[in-house]
Design a protein that fits this description.
Layout: E1 9-12, E2 18-21, E3 24-26, H1 30-41, E4 46-47, H2 48-55, H3 61-77, E5 84-87, E6 90-93, E7 98-99, H4 100-113, H5 123-130, H6 142-166, H7 170-183, H8 188-201, H9 204-221, H10 228-234
Parallel strand pairs: 1-7
Antiparallel strand pairs: 1-2, 2-3, 4-6, 5-6
Helix pairs in contact: 1-3, 2-3, 4-6, 6-7, 6-8, 7-8, 8-9
Length: 240
C-alpha cells in the first residue's frame, strides 16, 4: 500500500509501522508509535483515560496517564510533529494525517460492492489486501482491529477472485483466491472459489485434487468435512 500523503504527513500501519513527513521517515519512541497507531485505528477519536488504559494495561492508572502524556509530547515534537487534536478529555488524529489502512479499507469495500471495471493488473490491489496490520506487534488492543481488517480483506479478495473468474481471467482469479487462503487456510469460501475456477477452465482433475486436499486438511486439523455446498461442486466427479 505505502503511505498516502496529505501535506506530507502519513502513517503506515500495513506491513509494519512507519511515520513519514515529505517522504522522509520520522523516528519516534515506542510509546509515541503505539499512541499514533492507536489513534489512527480510531478515526472518531478516543478518551484520554481509555487510551492510557488500553495502551498501558499493566500500569497503575497514574503511571499510564504519565506514559500517555510522554507519548503525546514525543508525537508532537519529533520531526514535524503529528497534529493530534485534543478537546477536553478527547484525543483524535488530525485529518491532516493520511493513514494507509483507511485507504485500504475504502478500496476493500469498493471491491466487495463490485468493481464497475476490473483493473488491467491486479498485483498491486491484491498486494494491498494481503498486507497484515502491524505485523509483529503483540498488543492486546490490536486483536479486534486485526480481526476486523482480516474479515474485510478476505471478503474483498474472495469477491475480486469471483469477479476475475467471471471475466475469464482465470490466472489472476486463482492467485487472488490463493492469497485469501494464505490468510485463513481453514475458511472454506476461498477453497470453494479455487474449485470453481478450475471447473470453469475445464481442469476437472485439478478441481477434484484441490477438493480432496482440502477435505484431508479439514479432517486432519479439525475432524470435520467440507460443507455440502462445496462437496456439491465435485459430487459428480467423486468415485463411488
Amino acid at each position: 500500500m505505502g503511505v498516502v500523503f496529505w501535506h506530507g504527513l502519513g502513517i503506515e500501519l500495513l506491513r509494519g509501522f512507519e511515520v513519514t513527513a515529505e517522504g522522509d521517515r520520522v523516528l519516534l519512541p515506542v510509546g509515541a508509535q503505539h499512541l499514533l497507531a492507536f489513534l489512527a485505528l480510531h478515526e472518531g477519536g478516543v478518551q484520554r483515560g481509555v487510551a492510557a488504559e488500553r495502551l498501558w494495561p499493566d500500569s497503575a492508572q497514574y503511571r499510564a496517564a504519565a506514559n500517555l502524556r510522554a507519548a503525546l509530547y514525543h508525537a508532537r515534537h519529533h520531526g514535524p510533529g503529528m497534529p493530534i487534536e485534543a478537546s477536553g478529555q478527547w484525543l483524535c488524529l488530525s485529518p491532516a494525517v493520511r493513514v494507509d489502512l483507511r485507504a485500504a479499507r475504502g478500496t476493500a469495500r469498493q471491491v466487495v460492492a463490485g468493481l464497475s471495471q476490473l483493473p488491467s493488473g491486479c498485483d498491486d490491489l491484491v498486494g494491498d489486501l494481503a498486507a497484515e496490520l502491524l505485523p509483529g506487534w503483540g498488543d492486546e488492543w490490536l486483536i479486534t482491529e486485526r480481526e476486523r481488517w482480516d474479515q474485510l480483506r478476505l471478503y474483498a479478495l474472495e469477491s475480486l477472485a469471483r469477479q476475475l473468474c467471471g471475466a475469464e481471467r482465470y490466472l489472476a482469479a486463482l492467485q487472488t483466491a490463493l492469497t485469501a487462503i494464505d490468510i485463513d487456510p481453514v475458511r472454506e469460501t476461498a477453497h470453494r472459489i479455487v474449485v470453481e475456477i478450475h471447473l470453469a477452465e475445464g481442469n476437472i482433475a485439478s478441481a477434484l485434487r484441490f477438493y480432496q486436499q482440502y477435505r484431508s486438511f479439514l479432517q486432519r486439523e479439525l475432524n470435520v468435512a467440507p460443507s455440502p455446498k462445496m462437496t456439491g461442486l465435485v459430487r459428480n466427479l467423486l468415485r463411488t
